[in-house]
Amino acid sequence: MKATHFSEKDILQMESRSRAAFINSLHGFKSASLIGTIDAKGKTNLAIFNSVFHLGANPALVGFISRPDSAERHTLDNILETKFYTINHINKDIYLLAHQTSARYPKQVSEFEATGLTEEYTTLLQAPYVKESHIKYGLSFAEKHELKINDTILIIGKIEEIIIPKNCLLPHGGIDIEKAETIAISGLDGYHSTQLLSRLSYAKPDKLSEELK
After folding, report:
1. Distance CA 36, CA 177 (A)
2. Which domains, from first to last, does the chain contain?
3. Which tens digits make up the pLDDT trace of 98-144?
4. Are 122 and 161 in contact (CB under 8 A)?
């Protein structure tokens, strides 16, 4: 393929929306997640995020990036207010509704109501899950870090519970996210189903990894 070179100057001169789409696409496929929250008055919120990432397994920690709080950020506000939230995988059946949660609804409008997605609760968390999501987990707020370089906010949460289909648990301890029909995001608006190439054995310096059967 013929390559095109972009300098920092070229990137900065792009129209803002084009630059956002370009840079968001650069990192390849990302997780597609809906974050569910509730405020102290019981009003729910649901928002799509492509910035959720694994931070550690012991303790089980997950991070995500929130945009600057100079404007209204209902997800961030609710987490800081109630200290709990849920992260829900997006699957092939709900990605259109999930994408709609990126619209700028006013705080008094719940994205659950606006999109038709269903609130679901457990006895452990007050935050709402997405009933239609197949893999989901609830978290308690752990830390907030303001990133001075661009005024975004890193939120770290501790996993309190996980809800997952039994048939998606793999023998070695992993999760079969394809069987759960979890999809991926590219850029700001690309949604993708996936196909597993293979699972490989644990990598060691003196032995080439092998495909697991």
Report:
1. 20
2. 28-192 (2.30.110.10)
3. 999 999 999 999 999 999 999 999 999 999 999 999 999 999 999 99
4. yes
